[in-house]
Amino acid sequence: MKIDILTLFPQMFEGFKSESIIKRAIESNKVKINTCNFRDFAKNKHKKVDDTPYGGGAGMVLMCQPIFDAVESLKTKNSKVILLSPSGKKYDQKKAYELSKEKHLILICGHYEGFDERIKTICDDEISIGDYVLTGGELPAMVLTDSVVRLLPNVIQEDSHINDSFNKNLLDYPTYTKPRSYKGMDVPYVLLSGDHKKINDWRKEKQLKLTKEKRPDLLKNKYVLVKEGIKRNTKKIIYDDIKDIKVVEIKNNNNLKYKVSKDDRLVAITIFNPMKITGYKLKGKSEDKLTKILIVKKEFIYKIAIKNIMKKINILSNRLNLALMNTDNNVVSDALKEAQMLKDMIRSVYLPLLSEEKINSVTKKIDYLVDCFVKMKTGV
Ligand SMILES: C[S@@+](CC[C@H](N)C(=O)[O-])C[C@H]1O[C@@H](n2cnc3c(N)ncnc32)[C@H](O)[C@@H]1O
Asked: What is the DSSP string of 144-200?
């Protein structure tokens, strides 16, 4: 990839290019990063690049000519020209991935009051790095360049960015390093267990929990994808972003027909209308160890989860009622064990689906049942 940065302050990029991952990516030819001072393209006598705004007002405005000519001199058929501007579309990790697939980026850094509006006509995209105003586009250009370069093949290890925050709309899981215990704070035991399945499940659960707590906006999609494994009794529920599934309409008649693919692999051809249905079951091909896909509205999953939990609490309640009539001394301890197991199961299985408060409220119901049972059994 090649990145050309149009700036009045090329010096600002020297430090950026000469440290850490960016430096290594340049040295190993994964990326070429050049700065271009568009003042060099100004045709007037004093190399002036800005002027006062028509209609009056504060500040100076960057003129068309130097920027038009600088872009013209760098542009090829593979170039994507990006204007850095507070009024652009807000930058995110998805955009970084998209840009990392490009061959050549030309980034235009503004300064002063901003640009002559006509400069936008030579740009393919207008990007803002956030809802605040900086003095120039240089820091935004560095932010964009840094986030894109680390996604280029072999710049950093692939699995370190596939688990990064915002992938699949989730925040990253918590990480720990040596020592095991620091100032009384211990590393979670599961991470020391060596059991990779347990570690992955723990990380996935933490990602969902953290995202729910800190960035619920990322989970606002209405649908989740539920995948089921091919083996019987090994049903596995994986929460993916519906955006991961590509649904392409292949025929449009009264029954809408869609081709459904995930990661560019065909999963099913089916008929459904995602706008109307609560959920839809797709029969998939088995190549991806995938026999079934369910696309389900989140509220639907929530209702089913509550229904299942209530069913289990009712079973426990019936057992406790029966146990009240039993004279065996072990009955109380067995009941307590059973209640605790149910609470643990609810927490581990349903936490990814429900809120912490909801889990607490259902486990309180179990505590209440057990309390009543113990009081009645012991007569206290
Ligand atoms: C002082 S700003 C101009 C602000 C402009 N008057 C406005 O309110 O939108 C100068 C330049 O800094 C860059 N810039 C400032 N904030 C930015 C942001 N949040 N994202 C991207 N570029 C930004 C742009 O290139 C902009 O033209």
From this structure: HHHHHHTTSTTTS-HHHHHTSTTGGG-PPPP---S-SEETTEEPPGGGGS--HHHHH
